Amino acid sequence: xxxxELLDQAxxxxxxxxxxxxxxxxxxxxxxxxxxxxxxxxxxxHNDFPSEVATSTDPFNVLEYAASLSDEDARYVEAAxxxxxxxxxxxxxxxxxxxxxxxxxxxxxxPLAIVSNNSAAAISAYLGFYGLRxxxxxxxxRESADVQLLKPRPHLLNKAVRALAIPAxxxxxxxxxxxxxxxxxxxxxxSIGYANKPGKRDGFTNAGADAITxxxxxxxxxx
Length: 223
Prior knowledge:
Layout: H1 3-8, E1 12-15, E2 22-23, H2 30-43, H3 51-54, H4 59-69, H5 71-88, E3 93-94, H6 98-107, E4 112-119, H7 120-129, E5 138-142, H8 155-164, E6 171-175, H9 178-186, E7 190-194, H10 200-207, E8 211-213
Helix pairs in contact: 2-4, 2-5, 4-5, 5-7
């Protein structure tokens, strides 16, 4: 089944944020944010980072490490992370076809949720900036420092499905990472892998995505 055919049969659309909606760190590189989060930990007296944390360009890796230290460290790092994400919304680049898909889906009369490990505050800022807030029924995203609630765990997807009041098997989740596919499986939600970089198609196929698309514009023709 193609991605478009899968969407045609869906009762609700769930969209990941960073990738399928926009490039969150287009203007403020993720590596810079990761450095700043490490600085927060250093200020708290944590200077001896494991090599994989010390060299990581992914802020989520630093957040996960902070959570392994203490709840307090996790809260400080998560708060700083949220502030940087909100700041990044001013320079986030919309994904080609994403806004068209959101408008088209809303026009079809079916509900839409954004499900993301990014902060709810940043997503709200982005939707407000582009006048999309009224088109999104639910935002299920990071609202605390509890990393156990984040994908690939199914919590955020389960929360969105409950809020939409649509059976999980009638929901389709579009994500750009293998962890999105894993989370969808755990939540009994169908998945579309957004293969926006070379090599991702094979990865999604091996991970068991229900469908794959390389461009969101082909999904924006949904009726």
